[in-house]
Write a structure and sequence with these properties.
Length: 189
């Protein structure tokens, strides 16, 4: 009787079967290895894109203590966003290279070249106001976009980009620590 199990095959067919079987095992093994390699590669290659930790630049710990950023948690998403905001403000050319043509060699290559973090906090509580110069209401985000374009000789990120969003969070945290109310003005010094 002719069975379809390997033992029922003629010797030639049996040999062919085991070659086929080996080939299919090898290809299963290969796809498993390939899949594994992909996962490992994707993990390491995307580290800079989806990194949840933020590089600690000098001055961050001082800033963090001075403005009590830990009020918002010691290691939360929000604190990391503020830290990214800190990096953006003090090293714009390094953390937002897509949005500025300024480089390390330029004397002013970061927001901090022209603004302190407290300036940004005051700007935050005074934003969303009607600006007679442009005849419209200007949001904090739009002000930041304008500085990327005009003051840093670059391009405007969208308002959802961390390059804008995280600076807003930083300004908000500093305003919180200074107890600035809506519309607060700097005292004359
Ligand atoms: C070369 C100097 C310079 C740099 C660099 C610069 N700005 Fe400005 N920025 C200004 C000037 C000047 C104004 C005021 C413009 C006006 O009133 O029309 C301003 C205005 C602002 C305002 C509105 C509030 C205010 O103080 O008038 C915000 C917010 C702001 N900048 C954020 C930023 C951020 C964030 C960066 C970095 C991405 C940055 N700026 C980089 C010069 C600069």
């Amino acid at each position: 009787m002719n069975r379809s199990t390997p033992s029922g095959l003629k010797p030639v067919n049996r040999a062919r079967f085991s070659i086929l079987e080996m080939a299919s095992r090898a290809s299963t093994l290969l796809s498993a290895v390939g899949l594994g390699a992909f996962v490992v590669l994707a993990h390491f290659a995307s580290a800079s894109v989806f990194r949840s930790e933020v590089m600690a630049e000098s001055g961050w710990q001082t800033f963090r203590a001075q403005y009590q950023i830990d009020y918002f948690g010691t290691d939360g998403q929000f604190v990391r966003a503020i830290q990214n905001g800190y990096n953006l403000v003090f090293h714009t050319h390094k953390y937002a290279p897509r949005f500025t043509r300024r480089g390390p060699a330029d004397q002013v290559n970061s927001c901090s070249g022209c603004h302190t973090v407290e300036d940004l906090a005051y700007a935050f509580v005074n934003s969303d106001r009607f600006d007679p110069k442009v005849q419209k209401r200007v949001s904090f985000e739009e002000r930041v976009q304008r500085c990327y374009i005009g003051s840093l000789d670059g391009f405007a990120p969208t308002i959802y980009d961390p390059a804008v969003r995280d600076i807003r969070l930083l300004a908000r945290a500093v305003a919180h620590e200074l107890h600035l109310t809506e519309g607060a003005m700097r005292k004359a010094r």
